[in-house]
Amino acid sequence: MSVSVPTPEQILKLANGFRAACVLGAAAEFDLFSLLAEKPKTMEAICKQLESDPRATRMMLDGLVAIRVLDKSEGVYSVPKRLVPWLVAETPETLLPMLQHLSNLIRGWDQLAWTVRAGIPAPRSSSIRGPEADRESFIAAMHSVSGPAAAPLVEQFGPPPFRHLLDVGGASGTWTLALLEAMPEARATIFDLPDAIKQARHRIHGTRFADRIELVAGDFYHDDLPPGADLAWVSAIIHQHSLDDSRRLFRKVFDALTPGGQIAIRDFVMEPGKTTPAEGALFAINMLVNTASGGTFAFDEIAEALRDAGFENPEWTVQDSTMNSIVTAVKPV
């Protein structure tokens, strides 16, 4: 089967893709859409609230109008009503944390050639919001991207019956809640760093599963995992680390599970050549510019690491071209 190659015009369009991404990211860093959703404003009023340069602010605002995420009428800027749920903070559908996170990632991608030569991520600064806010956006962004996918993927997975779920690196609890919906009599433990546990406490409070979820702060690099679970969910974790790191994590999961328990790993799973799926190949570069040793891995590599940790019968249970592939394995009885 022949594969079409891009034309010169398409190559230049690919290379110019950074422009819209950067202007959208700058607006997200300022939380500009939330500001304008409250009340449409002139450029002067926006400058005053953002404490920004008038000339630069006008150009950014007009760029946002040009890519159709803002409206402009008689010098007054506003957010189109149908975009408000996606672009402002604190709505169920918000994409704002992911836009802020992607803006942070651009700083690493911009130095890809430096990273390829050096083999390590290039030094870079935080956003104008500061490193702590950047970390909060990262955790919230994981919910923004996983929230819509969680229930359909859990249904497709058809999780094995479990009594106690261990959500390793469970962030704000998106996957724990989806898995408990599928197994409402079970209980769960979310294990993650303290700032992630803080967001999980906020998101889980008031849900019908709140009294069945234990929140445990820790670092799986250094701490043992809470024992006693019969299903461990490891979502979007292994791409952040090397295969050797994953082996050590899988061993900790193995030790924490009850005999006969299962591990389920949600992540990109690559074909052996590592060029497909295409999103996985590009995501490997995202890990290259943002982590010391992360990447995306083929099923055989993941299966070998699981066997090395003591697991049996690794299977590519859900095959998908996105991060929603699932690999499972069993701890022997």
List the topology elements:
Elements: H1 8-15, H2 18-30, H3 32-38, E1 41-42, H4 43-50, H5 54-66, E2 71-73, E3 76-78, H6 84-87, H7 96-109, H8 112-118, H9 131-157, E4 164-168, H10 174-182, E5 187-192, H11 194-204, E6 213-217, E7 229-235, H12 243-256, E8 257-267, E9 269-270, H13 278-290, E10 297-298, H14 299-308, E11 312-318, E12 325-330
Parallel strand pairs: 4-5, 4-7, 5-6, 7-8, 9-10
Antiparallel strand pairs: 1-3, 2-3, 8-12, 11-12
% residues in beta strands: 15-25%
* Sequence stretches where pLDDT stays below 50 over 5 or more residues: none
What would you call the shape? Answer: globular
Structural class: alpha/beta
SSE pattern? HHHEHHEEHHHHEHEHEEHEEHEHEE
Distance between the termini: 47 Å
- What assembly state would you assign to the polypeptide chains in this entry? single chain
Number of strands: 12
Kindly state the mean pLDDT as a whole number?
Answer: 95
Described by strand count, sense and barrel closure, the largest sheet is: 7 strands, mixed
Strand neighbour order, sheet with most strands: 6-5-4-7-8-12-11
